[in-house]
Amino acid sequence: xxxxxxxxxxxxxxxxxxxxxxxxxxxxxxxxxxxxxxxxxxxxxxxxxxxxxxxxxxxxxxxxxxxxxxxxxxxxxxxxxxxxxxxxxxxxxxxxxxxxxxxxxxxxxxxxxxxxxxxxxxxxxxxxx
Length: 129
What we know:
Elements: H1 2-8, H2 40-48, H3 56-61, H4 63-72, H5 76-87, H6 100-117, H7 123-126
């Protein structure tokens, strides 16, 4: 768990300056979004995921989304839809999208959810959460 605490504490994110195009400030959070701390339950969930799907960069850069995924993990169909929505191309161009590393982690998690949902493994049986 300390690995996630150290990774999360890495760098503070700056707010987007007023009047700056979103595309010019790619991956900078909105000014009105407070940085939500990574919850202890989320850190435990991350460490219980298979190592090749642990979303370290997501937890570091977007802790609010990591916390949400942890909350949704018990409802795999809904979690899968949420992940697919995150990976969808922004419809109106107002979202800059995720850094490539985060996008890859989200895709790995979606594959993991699909595998769990198809009966290859049971998350509750494996103690993931």
